[in-house]
Design goal:
about 240 residues, mainly alpha
């Protein structure tokens, strides 16, 4: 009953969303009037702003009352000595599930397919991103288990990304770096970070500040490499065909 009452109380979340969304809506309205957009388009923008407000309030309230506590409890359960060996496999599975559910991943795939007129299929981008997030979460959980510093992963990873730039193709390079922001969407940041923090608190040899944080940085890196790898394969296929 208390959980239901906490979810129903949307006042704090609604206030935060309104403060963040109101300037954007105001700027859009001002420039829409200056550009003399049709009245129907302005009304459509207003309806969209209302729907975005309602969706963000419900989503953020669900994250606060459901995802964050559940993720932390799951992380604490996985961080016990008898279950710590499952951190990396479970992290891989959670990363894959969260990436599949992330709306921004599908939006990027649709935009790439539309912009390239079908030469790059949305399925290629979606699969590369989902596998990248899954590998990143599994790698981040393994880093926590082994106690490795974060720069042991990020420095070689970005050096590898720079080395792959000449081979992945001019089109895939900007798509790959855009995918890092898409991969670190609200579902990954809210749920996966909570699992990592819970596991770091439960484990004896880890520090929640040093080991619990940093997972999002790994998630922002590995999908870039996966999309670049897909670009290398696409470039090789294109050269063979031509």
């Amino acid at each position: 009953m208390s959980l239901l009452l906490d979810f129903i109380d949307l006042r704090g979340t609604a206030r935060d969303v309104l403060l963040g969304l109101a300037p954007l809506a105001a700027i859009g309205l001002i420039f829409g009037l200056r550009a003399k957009l049709p009245r129907e388009r302005l009304l459509a923008m207003a309806r969209g702003a209302v729907l975005v407000f309602a969706g963000l309030v419900l989503f953020l309230q669900g994250v606060k009352t459901g995802f964050l506590p559940t993720g932390e409890l799951l992380g604490k359960a996985l961080g016990t000595p008898e279950r710590a060996v499952w951190l990396a496999p479970v992290g891989f599975a959670l990363g894959l599930a969260v990436a599949v559910a992330e709306p921004a991943v599908r939006i990027l795939g649709d935009q790439v397919e539309r912009a390239t007129r079908g030469s790059i299929r949305r399925k290629v981008i979606i699969v590369a991103l989902c596998l990248g997030v899954a590998l990143a979460v599994g790698l981040g959980m393994g880093r926590m288990l082994l106690g490795l510093p974060i720069h042991f992963i990020t420095v070689p990873g970005y050096l590898l990304a720079l080395a792959m730039l000449p081979f992945c193709g001019r089109v895939f390079a900007p798509i790959a770096f855009d995918s890092s922001t898409v991969a670190t969407g609200p579902l990954v940041v809210s749920f996966i970070s909570a699992v990592a923090l819970g596991a770091a608190e439960a484990m004896d040899h880890t520090d929640p500040l040093l080991d619990g944080f940093g997972l999002v940085a790994v998630v922002a890196l590995v999908p870039v490499l996966c999309v670049m790898a897909a670009g290398v394969v696409h470039t090789l296929k294109t050269r063979r065909t031509s």
